[in-house]
Prior knowledge:
This protein is of the alpha+beta class. Among the domains are: 91-209, 3-Layer(aba) Sandwich (Rossmann fold), CATH 3.40.50; 272-500, 2-Layer Sandwich (Nucleotidyltransferase, domain 5), CATH 3.30.420; 502-566. The chain contains 20 helices and 41 strands. Strand 11 and strand 12 (243-246) form a beta hairpin. It starts with 10 loop residues before the first strand and ends with a strand.
Amino acid sequence: MTTPEKNERRIKVGIDVGGTFTHAVGVDLATMELVGKSVVPTTHKSKQGVAEGVVNSMRNLLDSAGIVPEEVILIAHSTTQATNALIEGDVAKVGIIGMATGPGAVRARREANVGKIELSEGKYLHTEFRFIDTAKDYNEDRIRQYIEELQAAGCTSIVSSESFGVDKPERENRVAEIAMEMGILACASSALSQLYGLRVRTRTAVINASMLPKMLETANLTEQAVRESGIDAPLMVMRSDGGIMDIEAMRKRPILTMLSGPAAGVAAALMYERISDGSMIEVGGTTSDICVIKNGKPIVTNGEIGGHRLFIRTLDVRTVGIAGGSVPRVKGGKVIDVGPRSAHIAGLGYEAFTDNIEKIEIVNVEPRPGDPTDYLALKVNGEETPSITLTPTGCANILGLADGYGKGNSESTRFCFEAVAKECGMKAEALADKLLEVATKRVINVVKAMLDEHKLKGKRIALVGGGGGAEAIVPYTARKMKMDYRIARNNEVISAIGVALGIIQDTVERTIMNPSEGDIVALRREAFESVQRMGADANSIEVTVEIDRQTKRVSATAQGTPELRTRSLGGELPSDEELLKKASEHCMADLGAVEQKTPERNWMQVFQAEKSRKILLGLFTTIQTPVAVIDREGIIRLHLPDARVDMVAPNELEDRLSQILDQYTTYGDGGMVVPDVFLVKPGQIADLTGLVEAPQIMSVARVETQSMAADDMIAMVSARKEA
């Protein structure tokens, strides 16, 4: 093996831990192309748990792709461990020490005692509870006594939770410190969330604490093995909100990895497939994960466990029980349904990946006790028990929709379909069409609902398929919805690619009754510094602040990368003409009606078009000015159907922004509604749309532009708020 010179390549390694396989990929940062990939079985039953599979896949990747440790600038992995532990109830018993005083102590005692928490059907997280009235009984002897009692009751981790502990966390922190001094893992509820709501905050901390023993062991084993391999690069873990965090942060807040599996696919949609507006459908063998992306950002929601709300942010990813291996239900010559059981769950193979089929016998099976007994199975070549079934993957092969990873043995597939189709009184193609129509109906319903819910519509919306089963579901779904689609490059390892390219991210949240300019700036700074500590280049960090008037929640989400793309990217970039053409297509306007507003040297390019539209039965004409922001790689970073662009110098910004706010602010039943404002700087976009008052927008705008050079120009993009 030829050893490249040190730092000849700059490679990110991504590892996705799936339910069956663990995939690893290496991505060359300069070209964004894969330099290698490997796959090993996920090591659920190993003494070292999934960490063994992570390390094995990484070592196989380094050997097979000729990657030397010095070339690796970052290694990151997703994990199903937290999710699986919750589903299976494989968690530690947690001791809770609640604290309060005064008139609200009785209520606080009740809310902090969360009891047993249902994680999934029949699976519970068990807790023990002790309470301290901080005005009468708060002392270290009492704390140690309660910790010893909780240990004796079988608790292996401790949560401290005090009413209004987010305002004064000292007592919560001290209880956690004492527990750790006594050799038991612990966390303070205010370290997980700074939001008011004692019951939800305590529940969030309890679930986090229940994961600590196993997740800490996994983190230590993984880090040790990575370092022993000679890689000295940062070690990151995928978060449930689509970002990545360093392994030290995971040690403290493993709950943030709870849904990192689906999040990896979303990260790939953003960073590898570069979706600006659309839907990503990641198709496995048993389930499909569906998300939408709007203006280059995924939709984020509150996490839940067992129907109980948590104070964590997760991507709005919706899972349906249809995928490449879903088993049809067929009886008496009639198609009853498809799924949700898959060939994998039923212990059956795929017809498309089976060779030398000469004879089959059609039977019905019950995949799991209590399942319907009419799932289709096939006995091959006189065998006593069925070994294969029909699948959506086979359907796609019959209909000519699979020519990549999902392409199988055409002779075997047709032989099986013709035999079953004969029983149903139809042709093989008609049976395949019927099965896919039934299967994709659930997927279509979810995609439509999400596009409508998030106001995504128009010709610029496309479906993107990821995962090994993408060809089985996505082409037919797009055909039925009359939408464009594409299958992601390297779709079978798309999640691992998403992990490798994940953005370092953190969110800081507070409950603030009337947030001042100082509150917002301080929260923004805290989020900025958090991702900077984890290794993000300060010049790459973008912070979005959101204010919820109803809940009084103020959130600051910071995102950044270890390297600044404008400096490190190699390879050939699109020409100015190609960017202009892309803007024309995205704005659905003639090429001659599109104007480039920003200097050509900028990484972020702003284009504005002008087009007329007939309204009121064609009696009147209105003018629309759509805006597209495209970076130098040709990625649509922002699109607005009708917006205004003002080019201003940093010292002119406040006056011009004040005028825009006065002109575009509207008033209705809900009060004042400020316009959406984006500040497009030479290398970044500052999104101010989450702010709800003019002084807040002005304050954050000042912070966003204070370090800009006097001769830099800002494209201020503004539009009235979407109804």
